[in-house]
């Protein structure tokens, strides 16, 4: 290895600039072989980067402009095979059959019928149902798009990708425009002396990539539990924040994180956050996910899976959305009264009033009896919220409410509809809780749903109580 490339980053050694921030993400995609999509304005080096990678790795490469391509360009011209009574394709140097890497440029300007045909290429390495046995890398590039096409001026022709197609890409890497480049990169990019030079790093990337891929394949069968747990927690947190992430994408994310570990030699928090941010597919169909939402999901997942002791348990508690599952964690898996107190106090403070009230209402009687591994301070916090609900005389209060002018109020009508379907102790609990909500002027969007959650919590508490004890 000559001195010219020995100390350079891998992309800089190929005279590719402006992608330093995402170099590890891009290299991780080379390790996994999962599809990669670059998104950026015209002239930001997307195509140059991917073509340079194929050249440096010595790949049989195909570069297609999706806005112009016809299906015949991709597969060749069909003709009957007289020996096998089927159809063969007349290949040209541009057809995809012998390719090791494929770049679908301007994929967001692709005609819908061609976008559908590219689906199996990106997803399965297949065309017309025929496997592309040599194909290692599937790459694509596009300009920014928007669900509102009037919002992007020069890029109005860049259509949002079909969500099913976008979800087949593992990573989405942004390309920096001029304002986002460092001063050094601006000078290097503007220098015309590199025009037309081959991407030659003297085999440096190609040699080390084989080693990385071998390590990745060795790691796959026994992925570290912390990585898989991080993925499950992060995907849960994003879905809870209304950022829909598919189960398929969780597998992509885990593979990319494992590759980042191979590259770094260890688990590194900044890399995990960067990989997670580049795994959100919504940008490909023009939906902006706020960075703070992704950062919060990363923080929750990291602290819940990479930390130890009480603090890790508390974060797992907050990550869980279901009230009954939170209850189960307190009843069966809480490591200490301090952890239980912290979890309960933070939940009651941060949660919506109706959900906090429902949880306290179901847990407080059992917590008074010492059930749930909650310290005295936590029990006190539960009582402050639960006692006003438990002190409601359900039958009298509900009867008075049904007889006064409030009976014509739409909130009472909706709640009464739920209550009248119930019976016994469950109906009495519902009357207490709903009356409290009416008194507190809390509007319930899904009264049947929250009543069901309360009942599930109470049933769970009952399973843990000793004979002769009772819940709310």
Q: Would you mind describing this structure in some detail?
A:
The strands form three sheets. The chain has a five-stranded parallel β-sheet with strand order 2-5-8-1-9. The chain has 21 helices and nine strands. β3 and β4 (86-90) form a beta hairpin. α10 runs antiparallel to α11 and α16 packs across α17 (376-390). Residues 1-7 and 149-153 have low confidence and may be disordered. It has two domains: 3-206, 3-Layer(aba) Sandwich (Rossmann fold), CATH 3.40.50; 330-472, no CATH class. It has helices at residues 3-6, 23-32, 46-56, 71-75, 112-124, 163-166, 183-190, 204-219, 225-240, 247-264, 269-277, 291-305, 309-319, 323-332, 337-350, 353-368, 376-390, 394-403, 410-419, 424-439, 447-464, and strands at 36-39, 61-65, 77-81, 86-90, 101-105, 126-127, 130-131, 137-142, 171-174. By secondary structure, it is an alpha/beta fold.
């Amino acid at each position: 290895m000559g001195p010219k490339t020995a100390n350079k980053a891998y992309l800089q050694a190929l005279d590719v600039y402006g992608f330093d921030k995402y170099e590890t993400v891009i290299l991780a995609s080379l390790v996994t072989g999962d599809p990669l999509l670059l998104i950026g304005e015209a002239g930001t080096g997307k195509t140059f980067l991917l073509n340079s990678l194929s050249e440096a790795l010595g790949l049989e490469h195909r570069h297609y402009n999706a806005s112009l391509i016809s299906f015949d360009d991709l597969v060749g011209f069909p003709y009957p095979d007289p020996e096998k009574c089927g159809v063969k394709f007349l290949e040209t140097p541009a057809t995809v059959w012998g390719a090791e890497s494929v770049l679908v440029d301007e994929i967001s300007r692709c005609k819908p019928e061609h976008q559908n045909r590219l689906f199996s290429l990106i997803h399965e390495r297949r065309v017309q149902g025929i496997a592309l046995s040599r194909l290692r890398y599937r790459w694509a590039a596009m300009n920014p798009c928007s669900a509102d096409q009037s919002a992007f001026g020069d890029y109005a022709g860049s259509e949002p990708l079909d969500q099913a197609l976008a979800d087949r890409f593992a990573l989405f890497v942004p390309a920096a425009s001029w304002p986002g480049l460092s001063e050094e990169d601006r000078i290097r990019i503007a220098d015309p002396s590199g025009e037309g030079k081959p991407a030659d790093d003297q085999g440096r990337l190609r040699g080390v990539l084989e080693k990385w891929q071998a390590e990745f394949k060795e790691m796959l069968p026994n992925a570290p539990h912390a990585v898989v747990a991080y993925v499950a927690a992060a995907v849960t947190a994003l879905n809870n924040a209304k950022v829909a992430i598919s189960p398929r994408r969780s597998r992509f994310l885990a593979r990319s994180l494992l590759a980042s570990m191979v590259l770094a030699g260890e688990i590194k928090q900044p890399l995990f956050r960067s990989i997670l941010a580049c795994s959100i597919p919504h940008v490909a169909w023009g939906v902006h996910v706020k960075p703070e939402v992704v950062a919060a999901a990363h923080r929750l997942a990291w602290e819940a899976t990479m930390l130890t002791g009480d603090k890790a348990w508390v974060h797992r508690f907050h990550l869980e959305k279901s009230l009954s599952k939170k209850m189960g964690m307190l009843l069966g898996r809480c490591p200490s009264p301090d952890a239980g107190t912290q979890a309960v106090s933070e939940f009651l403070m941060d949660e919506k009033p109706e959900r906090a009230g429902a949880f306290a209402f179901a847990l407080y009687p059992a917590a008074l009896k010492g059930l749930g591994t909650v310290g005295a301070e936590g029990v006190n916090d539960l009582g402050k919220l639960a006692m006003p609900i438990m002190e409601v005389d359900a039958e009298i209060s509900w009867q008075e409410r049904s007889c006064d002018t409030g009976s014509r109020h739409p909130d009472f009508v909706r709640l009464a509809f739920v209550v009248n379907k119930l019976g016994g102790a469950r109906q009495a609990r519902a009357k207490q809780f709903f009356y409290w909500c009416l008194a507190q002027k809390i509007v319930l969007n899904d009264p049947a749903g929250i009543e069901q959650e309360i009942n599930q919590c109470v049933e769970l508490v009952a399973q843990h109580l000793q004979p002769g004890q009772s819940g709310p």
